[in-house]
Amino acid sequence: MLQGLENTAIIAVAGLVLGFVIGCLLATFKLLPGKKFWARLPGRFTDLYVALFRGTPMVVQLLILHFVLFPALGVDIPSVAEAVLAFGMNSGAYVSEIMRGGILSVDKGQTEAGRAIGFGYGRTMLKIVLPQAVKNVIPTLGNEFVALVKETSVVSFIAVIDLTKAFQNIGNSTYEYIVPYLMLAAIYLVIVLGITGLVKLAERRLRAGDRN
Amino acid sequence: MIEIKNVYKNFGSLKVLKAVSLTIQKGEKVAIIGPSGSGKSTLLRCMNLLEEPTYGEVWLDGKLVTPVDPYLHPDIIAESKTFKKLLAQAKEASPKASEKALAEEIIARIKKEDLLKKHEGSSFAQKSRALYKENIIPINLARRRMGMVFQNVNLFNNMNVLENLITAPVSLKLKTKEEATETALRLLDRIGLKEKVNEYPSKLSGGQRQRIAIVRSLCMSPEYMLFDEPTSALDPEMVGEVLELMKELALDGMTMAIVTHEMGFAREVATRVVFMDGGQIAEEGTPEEIFGAPKNERLKDFLSKVL
Fold it and tell me: Which member of A186, B49, B230, B300 has the greatest number of CB atoms within 10 A?
């Protein structure tokens, strides 16, 4: 059971971090300035990526990664790492759209001021726009994280023991289902409430510089 | 010296700038005035390429700022065999014409018909790339030398005052953190806002913010300052403190281009006033000429409304 909790935590947290990084990159790609073909290419990549990962079920992606893609490539890594990759890439698609909204919500003058002082596009994004964008989308990101934690319950498809699988095993070996499953629900609830609290805290900290 | 040569700017079908040429010498304070929609802000933003001209060139101290195909760079064209041959021919045809005028004509023709790509070989391609590197200035380097102050201030909202002032010089490795902090504190002290060093922009008044934005530009030790209606978005009572700081800067000898509606300020501080109308420079001259004896009808009309 502890093993299951640990796996769930690893997959959710590492998946979110990976998803956040991928999402920020994809959103930045999508918003690159320039009208030429080459300048548009990263944006097209984002479109394709989002379409693929948002258009197919998480479980299917996980199965394809575990049973089709990695065997074909001859990659052999622990199933937990596979799950982290799958969840990170899937989450990246959602986070990229969240971040894009966040970046667009930052006043255009902030970018202009950054560029006018001599920063390149990347540095302007990293130092000025993204920190403000993240602050604006913290509530939505929290939402995404909560969804991610709960969705990790599908990793048993590739034989990873997570929280859900662990309690299923308890139920199967003791023929007692009511208590384990209610406990399982309670544990998820506690985790999610904990995350919600953390998100609120982060939001308060990040808004310290704002009015009032 | 900032040189704007024959710049056009279109936003879709809207022609905002039409063949504008303007040279700003070191030490000059050029006020750009005109009715709204006349293209004065766009002209200023073309200088540091926040707007890229649709056509035309911007030069900073003899180096090209606007992006251009190496084969279209005038200095490179002047090095080519094609140019020399055409110039020799042109001289023979009209020996009395000035060489400079002929050269300009030929450069324009070569650009228009893209003759270099057709006639010059690969050795010239190599040479032109090397020449190109010497004769352009990358935009981010150009912008470090031209500070910009915006109408809506645009201090970085995610940073406190000190971070706003030191982030650019430090992360671009122009100064160490200690040096940058020292400069920032000295400049803040000068404008009397040293005690605000750890505040966030949202806690400051409009006038304080704009003065700090000016100082933010100064922390990059720019040679030129571009002001885009710096007082237009401020409460009337805050306008004075910002203009006062700009006046001090002018007295220090800073080269300035100022888009403004403050005619009194333009008259007092500017060494030259440019009146824009309909995307063109309609009249330019000393403040005495522009405000005292305007010639252009539109300018007379404009002044009668704003003064």
Answer: B230
DSSP type of residue B39: S
Report how far apart, in Å, the C-alpha atoms of A64 and of each of A118, A149, A150, A185 are: 45, 21, 20, 28
Whether the CB-CB separation of B43 and B86 falls below 8 Å is answered with no
d(Cα A129, Cα B80) in Å, to the nearest integer?
45
The tokens for B177 are 């953190």
Residues of chain A with Cβ-Cβ distance to B150 below 8 Å are 109, 112-113, 116
Give the residue extent of every domain in chain A: 2-211
Asked if B39 and B17 count as a contact pair (C-beta separation under 8 A), the reply is yes
Lowest mean pLDDT among A63-72, B91-100, B177-186, B226-235: B91-100
Partners of B5 in the β-ladder: B57
Partner-chain residue, chosen from B144, B155, B156, that has the shortest CB–CB distance to A118: B144
B-side interface with A, Cβ within 8 Å? 48, 50, 140-141, 143-144, 146-148, 150, 152-158, 160, 167-168, 171-172, 200, 202-203, 213, 216-217, 220
CATH class of A2-211: mainly alpha
Q: Which helix (H) or strand (E) holds B156?
A: none
Do the beta carbons of residue B76 and residue B131 sit within 8 Å?
yes
Phi first, then psi: give them for residue B118, nearest 5 degrees: -75, -40
CA–CA gap between residue A169 and residue A182 (Å, rounded): 14
pLDDT tens sequence for chain A (212 residues): 778 888 888 898 899 999 999 999 999 888 887 777 788 889 899 999 999 999 999 999 999 999 998 888 888 888 889 999 999 999 999 999 999 999 999 999 999 999 999 999 889 999 999 999 998 999 999 999 999 888 888 888 887 888 888 888 888 888 988 998 999 999 999 989 999 999 899 888 877 656 54
Q: Judge whether B239 and B247 are in contact, CB under 8 Å.
A: no
Of residues A156 and B4, which shows the higher confidence score? B4
ipTM of the complex: 0.85
What's the pLDDT at A124? 94
**First-to-final CA distance of chain A:** 46
Residue A175 sits at φ, ψ, to 5 deg, of 55, 25
